Amino acid sequence: MKYATSSHHAMIISFNCYTYMLLRLGFERLADRLPFIRIAEKRFNSLTLRLANTTWNPSLIGPQLFDAVELHLTDPRLFYNRFEWKINDRMVRSLGLPISSFHAHIEKSPLLTRYTFNLCDVSPRMRKAIRGQLEAAYRIAEAHPKSVVTDNPVIVFHAGLAQDAADREAALLRLRENLEFLAATNKQLYEHYGHDRKIIPTLENSPNEGTWLCQTLDECVQVLRGLSDEIKLTLDYGHALTVKGGRNALLQQLKNKEVGENIVSLHMHHSPEVNNEAQHVHAPLSKIPQGNLQTLASDLREIVHCTAIKKQGYVTMEVPSGDPLDYMPWLRTSKRSAALVNRFLSGTRLFEFSDFQGTVKDQLASLALLKDMLDDSVLAGEKVWAYRGSN
Fold first, then answer.
1. Which of 1, 98, 133, 228 is the most exposed place for a label (fewest CB within 10 A)?
2. In whole angstroms, what is the distance from residue 186 CA to residue 67 CA?
3. R_g (Cα) of the chain, nearest Å
4. Is the Cβ–Cβ distance between 99 and 149 less than 8 Å?
5. How far is CA 103 from the centre of its chain?
């Protein structure tokens, strides 16, 4: 088994990256009032993109660390038009680290709020967005065949949000429409790009939060009925725990061979309990109470045994750092820049749950725990206790 981390958890961000985002936001607001401005959009984006440099954190990616990243297409530099979802070829060319999988855009963007991707929205804009996400993955795999380290990389989609409780059944029908479009579009793109490597769309189970769709594997399976040859499942273990009775339901569902065969991807994080309810926080595994680690190890071995995750060969850790300095170490020497960045971040909610999230050290400790639990299933329990007891 190999291990990946979410790409936006492994970045070191330059101050000028925020300058780029602010300029982009200003340009889009102006273009909304003066549409003819969009004639210059591509050139504007190319010029300002020179400001938006990022590097990868060498403390997280490399030998004896995470093997690859799940590349999130949520990076606001990748798509420079929220109406057309045009792909930025320069960003595609600039990628360099091992990529095990992709993650489509999400329902809310904390940095550019006008970029939304709700899979139960059947508008023409959303259809363009679906195609844009898939095409981005294919173009990255085409431009960087050696960097994409899985034969048939998955791309993870969220099921989306209903408008309210009354809209839930209708939203599931809309989601089904888009999933059918997604499957058909993926076939077209695979044929167009003419490679042996095929992108595998997957639907991820959602957390028990608000009006999220597909909070259980059962609901995922129902909405994908008849499409399982084209669209598979990503199991998010932390999300499953937030659903009442979620762990027992998950283990029961895994006994269904058809469900297990369609689970090809695994996301891992901890959902800590607050007032006896598991919270959707994406906390590190290193913060799991020691008495619960054996249960986690047992669950992980059962998940891997009953699913097709071994064929993909990667487990993805979704554990952010709650310390902004892990992403922006240059802030340590610049108080003025720190004040500006903190003002910018205050409304994004990026670090809302920092008390639960830990630091880069917790990310690495979580990786060590995960390796101990999965690399040697016979000795996992003893190794876990030894490692956990020393931290």
1. 228
2. 27
3. 21
4. yes
5. 5
